[in-house]
């Protein structure tokens, strides 16, 4: 075994200008050890350049504040991705109406952090005008046509996908670089800027409803907006599930289990199976780029692993019509419109406050869909760069150079040319890196870190170590309200979407994280409880679109709750009661 106390293959030096880092927020989109290919090709330096540019375009930073050749906004420590909290605190100090403490609450929830020590350059008045100009622009926008243009560009690149099997190894590397250098940067920069612009909108809405003293009001007012890109797969899967439910032949095929279902469906001769396969292939064309760990280089995408979405469809076919996401969204929209009407009546004699509310509601209707579409666009572009790398991995595995196709992710992007020139020379390196990766994967990274004060990796606890007591009857666990509604049911722990077939109708899904690859399972659950997440995470937005009671940020939920516990989830109050 190698020495895991040394820096991981792609670890980066932490910032001394902004020394405090956190796993908060970033842990839900990068929960595992970062592979060398991911950090060098997708995250790390490629994302850092665009992130810095996005913050400069927002008006909160100047590019020359960042170290040109070193990563500042992100951190990678023994393979685990961190977000620079100090940098976000500077953002809060410069943002009119915000504070460094507000950034702590946004990214950490109720977790404690080292005290904020202001830097002389944190709060500079010259940033105020620039940021206020961005705020004014964001709050005045009635549409985001640029996001629609990016959607069309992503579709165009997907339609122009080359035949990877006919390309040589050098051409596969060259095509990946074309996508990542010519297409991907503007997509990811726009999405990162959208995250900050979206925070303006949510902040405006929370300010507008604060006088009503109802902590769940802002959440209800962002439900049932429609046109949410990350909810679209749920709607498509629901229709496929109805095809199964309405066909005796399809039902029989699904009843035989998921493991070889794709092959059985494609070899079946009856018209129902042919109709389903045609519709499922359309689904994979449109949504095949989705997965959990969506930024990783070896993400298990639905296109590459169709058993995953088939397992989700299998659960949806068992649901009654009351779980139809179209009807749920309609109900939520009606409830939202009623709440808005009532608020307008209450503010009829307060024109200024009413105007603030109307402006916030207009902006939410623009930015919630735009933010989700922006993420979808970016992932779709990224998928076109990952596929040639997957082909390279499959090819070397078939040739006996790799032990498995996934070995490609143990190669750094800057090593790809050397790999193509002499694949055999990397065999020992790959074995060593996988052993190292597996050892790091057993560890629980610290939630907070400071530059120069990183605890030795030999002292990090193992993920399997008991770190939480089981919840007891009558105990109330708290988190963040993500979607209002109350449901009581049996807890079902799902640690991977591939385990979706274990979820029975009426059960409460308890999961570790909340990226869009999980959200189709939501439709099959009575309610959702998640370890991490924030009120504006992708899963929160999708749960509000689907009308699934949801509580996020329930600390160690998957350790404190076990299968079979009876729970009551109150998504409006953000509570989980154990019975």
TrEMBL record:
Classification via SUPFAM superfamilies = Phosphohistidine domain (SSF52009)
UniProt-listed Gene3D superfamilies: Phosphohistidine domain
Ranges for domain PEP-utilising enzyme mobile: 504-574
Record-linked Pfam families: PEP-utilizers
Q: What's the protein here called?
A: Phosphoenolpyruvate-utilizing protein
Q: Which organism is it from?
A: Rhodococcus pseudokoreensis
């Amino acid at each position: 075994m190698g020495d895991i106390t040394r820096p991981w293959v792609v670890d980066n030096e932490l910032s001394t200008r902004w020394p405090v880092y956190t796993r908060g927020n970033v842990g839900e989109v990068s929960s595992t050890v970062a592979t060398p290919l991911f950090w060098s090709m997708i995250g790390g330096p490629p994302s850092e350049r665009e992130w810095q540019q996005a913050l400069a375009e927002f008006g909160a930073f100047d590019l020359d504040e960042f170290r040109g050749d070193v990563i500042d906004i992100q951190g990678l420590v023994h393979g685990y991705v961190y977000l620079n909290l100090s940098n976000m605190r500077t953002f809060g100090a410069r943002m009119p109406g915000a504070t460094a403490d507000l950034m702590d609450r946004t990214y950490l929830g109720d977790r404690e952090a080292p005290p904020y020590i202001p830097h002389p350059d944190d709060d500079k008045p010259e940033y105020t005008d620039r940021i206020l100009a961005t705020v004014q622009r964001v709050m005045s926008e009635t549409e985001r046509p640029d996001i629609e243009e990016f959607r069309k560009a992503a579709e165009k690149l997907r339609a122009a996908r080359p035949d990877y099997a006919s390309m040589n190894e050098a051409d596969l590397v060259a095509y990946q670089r074309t996508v990542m250098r010519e297409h991907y940067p503007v997509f990811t920069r726009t999405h990162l800027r959208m995250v900050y612009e979206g925070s303006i909108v949510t902040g405006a809405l929370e300010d507008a409803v604060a006088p009503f003293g109802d902590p769940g009001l802002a959440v209800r007012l962002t439900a049932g907006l429609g046109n949410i890109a990350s909810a679209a797969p749920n709607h498509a899967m629901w229709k496929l599930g109805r095809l199964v439910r309405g066909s005796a032949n399809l039902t029989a095929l699904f009843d035989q289990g998921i493991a070889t279902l794709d092959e059985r469906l494609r070899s079946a001769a009856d018209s129902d199976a042919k109709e389903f396969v045609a519709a499922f292939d359309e689904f994979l064309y449109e949504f095949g780029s989705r997965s959990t760990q969506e930024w990783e280089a070896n993400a298990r995408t639905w296109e590459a692993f169709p058993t995953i979405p088939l397992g989700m469809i299998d659960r949806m076919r068992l649901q009654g019509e009351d779980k139809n996401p179209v009807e749920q969204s309609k109900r939520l929209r009606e409830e939202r419109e009623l709440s808005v009407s009532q608020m307008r009546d209450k503010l009829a004699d307060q024109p200024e406050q009413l105007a603030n509310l109307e402006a916030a509601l207009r902006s939410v209707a623009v930015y919630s869909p735009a933010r989700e579409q922006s993420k979808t666009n970016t992932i779709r572009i990224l998928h076109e760069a990952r596929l040639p790398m997957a082909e390279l991995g499959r090819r070397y595995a078939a040739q006996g150079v790799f032990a498995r196709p996934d070995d490609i992710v143990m190669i750094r992007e800057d090593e790809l040319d050397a790999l193509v020139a002499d694949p055999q020379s990397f065999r020992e390196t790959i074995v060593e890196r996988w052993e190292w990766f597996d050892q790091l994967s057993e560890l629980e990274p610290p939630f907070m870190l400071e530059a120069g004060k990183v605890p030795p990796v030999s002292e990090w606890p193992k993920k399997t170590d008991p770190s939480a007591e089981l919840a007891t009857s009558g105990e109330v666990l708290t988190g963040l309200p993500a979607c209002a509604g109350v449901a009581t049911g049996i807890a079902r722990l799902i640690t991977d979407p591939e385990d979706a077939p274990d979820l029975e109708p009426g059960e409460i899904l308890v999961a570790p994280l909340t990226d869009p690859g999980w959200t189709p399972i939501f439709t099959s659950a009575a309610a959702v409880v998640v370890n991490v997440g924030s009120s504006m995470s992708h899963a929160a937005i999708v749960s509000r679109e689907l009308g699934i009671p949801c509580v996020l940020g329930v600390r160690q939920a998957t350790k404190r709750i076990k299968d079979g516990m009876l729970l009551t989830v109150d998504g409006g109050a953000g509570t989980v009661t154990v019975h």
